[in-house]
Design goal:
Helix content: 25-40%
Bound molecules: zinc ion
Shape: globular
CATH architecture of the largest domain: Alpha-Beta Complex
Strand content: 15-25%
Mean pLDDT: 97
Number of helices: 11
């Protein structure tokens, strides 16, 4: 197999090695497409607790090539999308049904080798079979979509809500579509990049705002009879936008902090305002039991993801893909793992 290996942070080399044999409960997947995520960028820069040397990449799909002796749910030839997050099943959060908050969480592409390779071994139960009609790059992106589905569950949008989204990267654009499917009456998207504002408009945003040139608060008030939004979703992952999200929520407002802010970021909240306006602030972590729901949505055609892929790159251009993501030039980068430039 061929793999993009990070021996240490900030370094990537293409290695040729023997494909690992699957253990009794595992499957060997021939990877066809693997999305590049903000987490991969954090790992590459050494800002995320990962195991080095590492083959990163946790958003991928491919074809099962071989299964371990104890695997009955999969067979060679099955097309699969992989859920990378593996829980232990026996810690306190797991025992209480919060498996995604597992204290011993491991993840394909973070704590064990992932999908920036032609092949990857994963526990068989992490594989979701998909039909041959679904392109590999769409199946690969079921993982980030599944994280967004969990986020929308947490945001508690009800029919008729005014929803404000801060940031229109891939995640913001998926959450926008999910908010509309959930029955949001009006959606406002705040985004600095004109190309991404255009994409948001194309996906049905009621109004897009350039926060550098327009008064966002005013724009939202105009649309909600001066009340502010019912739901605000932060999709940037920065302290400043998290602060803005909490400040802009209207009466009875729910705030979802979805973006991954730096660990040291802090915001200021008025407890009185939270009390008086019954503001609810919540987070959303990974994809608990939402991978199959994400795949169902993608198969139905009610959620658009292909149009958000701005770059398709070969395996040896993983660092370039990360750079394109960091600069904001790319919306979504997908590595076509069987290709090498
Ligand atoms: Zn990801
Ligand atoms: Zn656990």
């Amino acid at each position: 197999m061929r793999a993009a290996v990070f021996p240490v942070p900030e370094e990537c080399e293409i290695a040729q090695r023997e494909a690992p044999a699957p253990a009794e409960h595992e499957a060997l997947v021939r990877v066809h497409a693997c999305g590049v995520c903000g987490t991969d960028a954090h790992i590459y820069r050494g800002r995320f607790p990962a195991r080095f040397p590492l083959i990163a990449g946790h958003e991928f799909a491919g074809v099962v090539e071989e299964v371990g002796s104890n695997v009955s749910v999969l067979q060679p030839g099955d097309r699969v999308a992989v859920d990378p997050n593996i829980y232990c099943g026996s810690c306190r959060p797991c025992r209480r049904g919060l498996t995604h908050l597992c204290r011993n969480l491991s993840a394909v592409g973070v704590t064990r080798d992932g999908g920036f390779a032609t092949h990857c071994v994963v526990p068989a139960r992490q594989c979701h079979t998909v039909t041959s009609e679904m392109p590999f790059e769409v199946a690969a992106l079921a993982e980030p979509v599944a994280c967004c589905v969990h986020g929308i569950d947490r945001a508690g949008i009800v029919s008729g809500d005014v929803v404000l989204l801060l940031g229109a990267g891939t995640i913001g654009l998926v959450l926008l579509q999910l908010a509309r499917l959930q029955g949001a009456a009006l959606t406002v998207v705040s985004e600095l990049d004109p190309g991404k504002r255009e994409l948001a408009k194309g996906l049905g945003a009621t109004r897009v705002v350039d926060p550098a040139a327009e008064d966002l608060e005013q724009a939202v008030e105009d649309m909600s009879d001066g009340s502010g939004p019912d739901v605000v979703i932060e999709c940037v992952g920065a302290g400043a936008t998290a602060q803005q999200a909490c400040d802009l929520a209207g009466e009875g407002g729910r705030v979802l902090l979805f973006g991954v802010a730096p660990e040291e970021a802090e915001i200021t909240i008025s407890p009185y305002r939270v009390y008086r306006n019954e503001i609810a602030i919540t987070g959303s972590f990974t994809n608990p039991f939402t991978q199959s729901r994400a795949l169902a949505l993608l198969a139905s055609g009610r959620l658009q993801i292909e149009g958000l892929i701005s770059h398709r790159l070969p395996l040896d251009e993983v660092p370039r893909g990360i750079g394109l993501l960091e600069s904001g030039e790319a919306t979504k980068v997908v590595i076509e793992t069987q290709e090498c430039g």
